[in-house]
Amino acid sequence: MSRLSAVLIAGLLCTAVAGPAAAADSPLLGRWRTAAQGGVVEIHACGSALCGRLVDAAPLRRNPDQRDVRNHDPALRDRPLRGLRVLEGFRGGPTTWTGGPLYDPDSGRRAASGRLVLIDPDHLAVRGCIAPLLCRTQTWMRLP
Asked: Are 50 and 42 within 8 A, CB to CB?
Protein backbone atom coordinates (compact mmCIF):
# COMPACT_ATOMS: atom_id res chain seq x y z
CA MET A 1 0.00 0.00 0.00
CA SER A 2 1.39 3.40 -0.90
CA ARG A 3 2.02 5.99 1.77
CA LEU A 4 -0.67 8.26 0.29
CA SER A 5 -3.24 5.45 0.41
CA ALA A 6 -2.39 4.75 4.04
CA VAL A 7 -2.80 8.43 4.94
CA LEU A 8 -6.14 8.65 3.11
CA ILE A 9 -7.48 5.52 4.81
CA ALA A 10 -6.33 6.78 8.21
CA GLY A 11 -8.05 10.10 7.55
CA LEU A 12 -11.31 8.41 6.58
CA LEU A 13 -11.21 6.24 9.69
CA CYS A 14 -10.62 9.27 11.91
CA THR A 15 -13.54 11.08 10.29
CA ALA A 16 -15.84 8.08 10.74
CA VAL A 17 -14.91 7.79 14.42
CA ALA A 18 -14.90 11.53 15.19
CA GLY A 19 -18.25 12.25 13.48
CA PRO A 20 -20.48 10.37 15.92
CA ALA A 21 -18.45 11.63 18.88
CA ALA A 22 -18.87 15.22 17.69
CA ALA A 23 -22.65 14.81 17.48
CA ALA A 24 -22.75 13.08 20.87
CA ASP A 25 -20.82 15.98 22.48
CA SER A 26 -22.78 18.78 20.81
CA PRO A 27 -23.94 21.69 22.99
CA LEU A 28 -27.30 21.44 21.18
CA LEU A 29 -28.24 18.13 22.81
CA GLY A 30 -31.25 18.37 25.08
CA ARG A 31 -34.75 19.81 25.15
CA TRP A 32 -35.68 23.13 23.61
CA ARG A 33 -38.93 25.16 23.87
CA THR A 34 -40.07 26.22 20.41
CA ALA A 35 -41.60 29.59 19.54
CA ALA A 36 -45.03 28.15 18.73
CA GLN A 37 -47.68 26.34 20.78
CA GLY A 38 -45.39 25.59 23.71
CA GLY A 39 -43.65 22.93 21.69
CA VAL A 40 -40.69 20.99 23.06
CA VAL A 41 -38.14 19.46 20.69
CA GLU A 42 -35.50 17.07 21.95
CA ILE A 43 -32.27 17.32 19.94
CA HIS A 44 -30.24 14.11 19.92
CA ALA A 45 -27.40 12.47 18.04
CA CYS A 46 -28.43 10.32 15.09
CA GLY A 47 -25.33 8.74 13.68
CA SER A 48 -22.79 11.47 12.96
CA ALA A 49 -25.49 14.16 12.74
CA LEU A 50 -28.06 15.83 14.96
CA CYS A 51 -31.79 15.23 14.74
CA GLY A 52 -34.76 16.48 16.74
CA ARG A 53 -38.12 15.03 17.67
CA LEU A 54 -41.27 16.62 19.01
CA VAL A 55 -41.84 15.51 22.60
CA ASP A 56 -44.51 17.98 23.76
CA ALA A 57 -46.81 20.75 22.51
CA ALA A 58 -50.16 22.29 23.43
CA PRO A 59 -52.08 20.04 20.98
CA LEU A 60 -50.45 16.97 22.58
CA ARG A 61 -51.47 18.10 26.06
CA ARG A 62 -55.07 18.40 24.86
CA ASN A 63 -54.96 15.15 22.89
CA PRO A 64 -51.95 12.84 23.53
CA ASP A 65 -52.88 10.84 20.40
CA GLN A 66 -52.81 13.93 18.13
CA ARG A 67 -51.97 13.07 14.51
CA ASP A 68 -50.07 14.98 11.84
CA VAL A 69 -53.32 16.21 10.26
CA ARG A 70 -51.83 19.34 8.62
CA ASN A 71 -49.23 17.43 6.62
CA HIS A 72 -49.37 18.34 2.94
CA ASP A 73 -48.93 14.65 2.09
CA PRO A 74 -52.26 12.89 2.81
CA ALA A 75 -50.45 9.56 3.27
CA LEU A 76 -48.60 10.99 6.32
CA ARG A 77 -51.56 12.58 8.11
CA ASP A 78 -52.21 9.56 10.32
CA ARG A 79 -48.76 9.44 11.97
CA PRO A 80 -48.60 10.52 15.63
CA LEU A 81 -47.14 13.94 16.44
CA ARG A 82 -45.47 12.78 19.66
CA GLY A 83 -41.99 11.57 18.77
CA LEU A 84 -42.20 12.92 15.22
CA ARG A 85 -38.78 13.81 13.78
CA VAL A 86 -38.81 17.53 12.97
CA LEU A 87 -35.04 18.10 12.46
CA GLU A 88 -32.75 15.78 10.56
CA GLY A 89 -29.17 15.51 9.35
CA PHE A 90 -27.58 18.59 10.94
CA ARG A 91 -23.78 18.72 10.97
CA GLY A 92 -21.26 21.36 11.96
CA GLY A 93 -20.47 23.21 15.14
CA PRO A 94 -19.29 24.60 17.42
CA THR A 95 -21.91 27.36 16.99
CA THR A 96 -23.50 26.71 13.57
CA TRP A 97 -24.98 23.50 12.13
CA THR A 98 -26.50 23.05 8.69
CA GLY A 99 -28.63 20.30 7.27
CA GLY A 100 -32.19 19.35 6.81
CA PRO A 101 -34.90 18.67 6.24
CA LEU A 102 -36.93 20.42 8.94
CA TYR A 103 -40.64 19.81 9.41
CA ASP A 104 -43.18 22.23 10.88
CA PRO A 105 -46.20 20.28 12.17
CA ASP A 106 -48.17 23.55 12.70
CA SER A 107 -48.17 24.32 8.96
CA GLY A 108 -47.53 20.84 7.59
CA ARG A 109 -44.62 22.23 5.55
CA ARG A 110 -41.21 20.70 5.11
CA ALA A 111 -38.13 22.88 4.66
CA ALA A 112 -35.51 21.17 2.54
CA SER A 113 -32.62 22.87 4.31
CA GLY A 114 -31.90 24.73 7.47
CA ARG A 115 -29.41 26.23 9.86
CA LEU A 116 -29.12 26.00 13.63
CA VAL A 117 -27.13 28.78 15.32
CA LEU A 118 -26.34 28.67 19.02
CA ILE A 119 -26.85 32.29 20.09
CA ASP A 120 -25.77 31.54 23.66
CA PRO A 121 -25.95 28.38 25.80
CA ASP A 122 -29.71 28.84 26.31
CA HIS A 123 -30.94 30.24 22.96
CA LEU A 124 -30.96 28.59 19.56
CA ALA A 125 -31.87 30.26 16.25
CA VAL A 126 -33.61 27.72 14.01
CA ARG A 127 -33.91 28.68 10.33
CA GLY A 128 -35.73 26.65 7.72
CA CYS A 129 -35.83 27.40 3.99
CA ILE A 130 -38.24 25.99 1.43
CA ALA A 131 -36.39 27.94 -1.30
CA PRO A 132 -33.23 30.09 -1.24
CA LEU A 133 -35.12 33.31 -0.40
CA LEU A 134 -38.12 31.77 1.37
CA CYS A 135 -36.87 31.20 4.90
CA ARG A 136 -38.24 31.56 8.43
CA THR A 137 -36.30 31.80 11.69
CA GLN A 138 -37.45 31.05 15.23
CA THR A 139 -35.57 31.37 18.51
CA TRP A 140 -35.85 28.37 20.82
CA MET A 141 -35.01 28.39 24.53
CA ARG A 142 -33.18 25.57 26.31
CA LEU A 143 -35.18 23.73 28.96
CA PRO A 144 -33.56 22.46 32.17
From this structure: no
> What are the tens digits of pLDDT across the range 107-131?
999 999 999 999 999 999 999 999 8
The answer to whether 128 and 135 have CB atoms below 8 angstroms apart is yes
CB 117 within 8 A of CB 89: no
Compute the distance between CA of residue 46 and CA of residue 53 in angstroms, rounded to an integer.
11
| Amino acid, single-letter form, for residue 111 | A
- Do 5 and 18 touch, CB atoms closer than 8 A? no
Cis peptide bond prior to 59, omega within 30° of 0: no
pLDDT tens digits, 68-78: 999 999 999 99
Q: Say how far residue 103 (Cα) sits from the centre of its chain.
A: 9
Q: Domain spans of the chain?
A: 3-142
DSSP codes joined into one string, 84-143: -EEEEEEEE-SSEEEE--EEETTTTEEESEEEEEEEETTEEEEEEEEETTEEEEEEEEE-
The CATH fold of domain 3-142: Lipocalin (2.40.128)
CA dist 98 → 2, 16, 66, 87 (Å): 35, 18, 29, 11
